[in-house]
Amino acid sequence: MTEAPVHVTGRIAIVLRALAAAPEAGLSTSDVARATDLARPTVHRLLVALSGEGYVDRDRRTGSWFLGPELYLLGEVAARRYDVTQQARASVHRLASATGESAFFSARRGDETVCLLREDGDFPIRSFVLYEGARFPLGVVSAGLVVLSMLPDREVDEYLARVDLTGDWGPSHAAAPLRERIARTRELGYAVNPGLVVEGSWGMAAAVFGPSGEPAWALTLTGVESRFRDDRRPELGALLLKEAHALTRALGDR
C-alpha cells in the first residue's frame, strides 16, 4: 500500500476512491481506515464532514458508507467534458465480438488506470482480473503497462524512482523487469501481460491517445493463457492497434 497523503485534499481523495471500490456493499469506517492507511479517528472526521456536504452517504441500518448524491450531480456535469465511454463502447464491442475474449476500456487517472467498460465475448472461460471500477498502478496489468510504456522516458524514470510495485505485485514488477517489458511494448506497439497478476490469466492492451499526444486510455483483451498463444498474439495485437488508432482519431475529432 502507498503511503497515506498528509494533506487534507489527498486524504479526501483516497477516502472517496476507497468508497468507489465498494459501490454495492459500502464500507464501514474501519474498512475505510484499513483501505486508506489512515487513522480511524481521521477517517471518521473526514466522512462526517463529507456527509454534511452530500459527498458521502451513510446507511443508518448497517452503518456502511457510500458515495453521496452530490458526487453524482458533479459527475453529470464533468461527464460532458470527460466522458468518452460512448465513443469507446463500439470499439470494445467489436473487439469482444471478433476475438471471443473479454474486452475493456480503461482511463489513466494520475498514477493509475481505471477500468470503465467491459464486454465479454462468446468464449466460455473468462478472466476476472479486470472489472468496471478496478484500479491498478501504472505498470500493472496490460492497460497500465501500455500507458506507462508510451510516456516519455523522463516521466517513466520519475515514476519508477518514486513507486515500488514489488510489495503488492511481486518481484516481476521491479524496475529492471518492468523496463524490459516497456522496451518490448514500445517495439510491438502493444503490451502483453503473461499472467503476472493472476497465473494463467493473460492480457494485451493498446494505448489510446489524447489530443496532446499523451496516452490517456487503453483498450484491453484478457483471457486464459491457451487463448493467447504465440501464433495468435500478433493477430490480437493488430486488432487492438486498429481499434486504438480509430478511437484516438474519433476522440481527437470531438
Mean pLDDT: 91
**CATH level-4 homologous superfamily of the largest domain:** GAF domain
CATH T-level fold name of the largest domain:
Beta-Lactamase
What gap, in angstroms, lies between the N and C termini? 37 Å
* DSSP summary: helix tally: 10
- For the largest beta sheet, what order do the strands appear in spatially? 5-4-3-8-7-6
The share of residues in extended strands comes to: 15-25%
Which structural class do the helices and strands define?
alpha+beta
**Uncertain stretches:** none
The beta-strand count equals 8
Biggest sheet architecture: 6 strands, antiparallel
What's the helical proportion of residues? 40-55%
Order of helices and strands: HHHEEHHEEEHHHHEEEH
* Total individual domains: 2
CATH class of the largest domain: Alpha Beta
CATH architecture of the largest domain: 2-Layer Sandwich
The radius of gyration computed from the alpha-carbon positions, rounded to a whole number of angstroms, is 19 Å
Keywords: DNA-binding, Transcription, Transcription regulation
Domain HTH iclR-type: 6-69
Organism: Amycolatopsis acidicola
Domain IclR-ED: 70-253
Explain this structure.
The strands form two sheets. Strands 5-4-3-8-7-6 form a six-stranded antiparallel β-sheet, with helices on both faces. A two-stranded antiparallel ribbon has the order 1-2. The longest helix has 20 residues, at 233-252. By secondary structure, it is an alpha+beta fold. It has ten helices and eight strands. The protein folds into two domains: 8-78, Arc Repressor Mutant, subunit A, CATH 1.10.10; 84-252, Beta-Lactamase (2-Layer Sandwich), CATH 3.30.450.40.
